[in-house]
């Protein structure tokens, strides 16, 4: 986002950036809407929050960024 809150010109209109807390650290993750929707479905099914699932994914990833994990 720019200084006035507008999206940057080169921002992908199909992706969303969200702030999450991973292992106690705040970070941002940008993914397409379909991936966020899928992640939220998993959270509902597993009855865990977004921060918890992101922490679990982070702990299990091997060498890739959190978004790619």
Give an account of the 3D structure.
This protein is α+β, with helices and mostly antiparallel strands and 69 residues long. It has one domain (1-69). The protein is 36% helix and 23% strand. The protein has two helices and two strands. The protein has helices spanning 33-46, 50-60, and strands at residues 15-22, 25-32. Strands 1-2 form a two-stranded antiparallel sheet. The longest helix has 14 residues, at 33-46. The chain is globular, with a radius of gyration of 13 Å. The two termini are 25 Å apart. Residues 1-9 have low confidence and may be disordered. Residues 16-67 form the Ribbon-helix-helix domain. It holds the Pfam family RHH_4. InterPro entries: RHH_dom, RHH_sf.
Quick description:
With 69 residues, this protein is an alpha+beta fold. The protein has one domain (1-69). It has helices spanning 33-46, 50-60, and strands spanning 15-22, 25-32.
**So how many helices?**
2
Please report which band the strand proportion falls in: under 5%, 5-15%, 15-25%, 25-35%, 35-45% or over 45%: 15-25%
Quick one: how many beta strands?
A: 2
Uncertain runs with pLDDT below 50, 5 residues or more? 1-9
Widest sheet, order of strands: 1-2
CA-based gyration radius = 13 Å
Mean pLDDT: 82
Describe the main β-sheet briefly. Answer: 2 strands, antiparallel
Sum up the overall morphology in one term.
globular
Keywords:
RHH_dom, 2 helices, alpha+beta, 2 strands, single chain, RHH_sf, 69 residues, disordered N terminus, two-stranded antiparallel ribbon
């Amino acid at each position: 986002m720019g200084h006035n809150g507008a999206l940057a010109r080169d921002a992908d209109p199909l992706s969303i950036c969200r702030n999450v807390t991973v292992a106690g650290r705040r970070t941002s993750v940008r993914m397409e809407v379909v991936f966020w929707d899928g992640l939220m479905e998993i959270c509902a099914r597993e009855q865990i929050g977004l921060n918890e699932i992101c922490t679990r994914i982070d702990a299990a990833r091997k060498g890739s960024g959190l978004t790619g994990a």
